[in-house]
Amino acid sequence: MNAHMNNPDRAGALVSALPHIQAFRGKTVVVKYGGNAMLNEDLKAAVIGDVIFMACVGIRTVLVHGGGPEIEAMLKKTGKESRFINGLRYTDEETMEIVQMVLCGKVNKDICSLIQQAGGQAMGLCGIDGALLQARRIRSGGEDLGLVGEVEIVDIQFLNSVLDLGVIPVISSVAYGTGQDEGKALNINADIAAAKIAGAMGAEKLLLMTDVQGILRDVRDPDSLIKKLSRAELGALVKDGVVSKGMIPKTDCCAIALDGGVKKAHIIDGRQPHALLIELFTDEGIGTMIE
């Protein structure tokens, strides 16, 4: 809380958060953690604090993360060229080993360690653990992407048993291959993984942390933020070209979550400290909410 606030203001802030805390207690919220909030130390600390706060007030909090920059850095160290096909990383066996090592081994455990240090309890998982995320290999525009998959099944039983212990599951986006790739590790998009997990769990909310304010009616005008829209309105904005370029994968992800049974999907600005708490526990919220 702001150091310049006096005690009555602090109490007022807590009281105004109470209805939101009551509304979300016992509900599931899936957070996709990525972008600048994973790189900047102050923002990282704020996210970790927010997630622990959420768990402490009884929200069943699931954290899903990517780790593109760290994968990129490790590939450079090993002298491996990155190759992208239609925005998706081509993943041969050697690249998959590095993806698995970086995401499941390093990034995942670093996040768990930060949660533990800050007084929370976390369990690091990837889609292979308990065959939590089962995926099949995909192609893009007819082109082979290597060991890249799309989640077909989310086994939430395992995840719920972790949440029942009051522990925060921290999930990295590596899946358990099925079919011709039975048992192989497959690289999956972390945003889509978060959306599929949120849908399978019937989550109250999916919160996508990004490096943008939210959906803007005019990308050149920061004051044109669309605070709230329906699933149908979202479809219309995509059709009209208001949503374009880098925002399309984010809105696709929200659409997958909503169509899968999530009540509300939010695109929020992870560059703002405590963006998660502002979205969940204030009347104004932050970013764009789609329902």
Radius of gyration: 19 Å
Beta-strand percentage range: 15-25%
What spatial form do the alpha-carbon principal axes imply? globular
Structural class: alpha/beta
Query: What is the string of SSEs from the N terminus onward?
Result: HEHEHEEHEEEHEEEHEEHHEHE
Give me a quick take on this structure.
The chain has helices spanning 7-24, 41-56, 68-77, 93-117, 156-164, 190-200, 231-239, 247-259, 275-281, and strands at 28-33, 60-65, 84-85, 88-89, 122-126, 133-140, 143-154, 168-172, 174-177, 185-187, 205-210, 228-229, 264-269, 288-290. The protein is of the alpha/beta class.
Secondary-structure blueprint:
Layout lengths: L6 H18 L3 E6 L7 H16 L3 E6 L2 H10 L6 E2 L2 E2 L3 H25 L4 E5 L6 E8 L2 E12 L1 H9 L3 E5 L1 E4 L7 E3 L2 H11 L4 E6 L17 E2 L1 H9 L7 H13 L4 E6 L5 H7 L6 E3 L1
Parallel strand pairs: 1-2, 1-11, 2-8, 5-8, 6-9, 11-13, 12-14
Antiparallel strand pairs: 3-4, 6-7, 9-10, 13-14
Helix pairs in contact: 3-4, 6-8
